[in-house]
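Support reply, case 0932

Customer input (verbatim):
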Amino acid sequence: MIEIKLALDGAGLLRGCDIQGHGGANGGGADVVCAAVSVLIRTALRVLTGRPGITIRGEAPERGSLWMEAEYTPEGRDFLSATGFFLTEGLKSVAADYPGHCKMTIYTNSMERRN
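Our regenerated output:
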């Protein structure tokens, strides 16, 4: 089971996420759920990293584990808003299509990262 914790601020902007686990939908190396979640989060991180007005911190210490945090200034707000909306909707779609393999929880204003 992939567990996604997504943190949004009061305005609905992406502030962080914690993704843990494996989907287990199709077995090792061919898991459509893991592939979908991985592509969505990796693309969002690549798009946001280095963008003016947006600071991204995070790590993927091992397979099946990733966390990130986002900070923004007024300059980066609109871009973070659009990217975060895209990511949120994509992850919601995966969780809805594969409820036995992916669970998503959205937190507003705060989220405790796993240690």
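We compared this against your earlier run and they match. Two observations from our side: The radius of gyration is 14 Å. The helical segments are 32-48, 77-97. Please reopen the case if you see a mismatch on your end.
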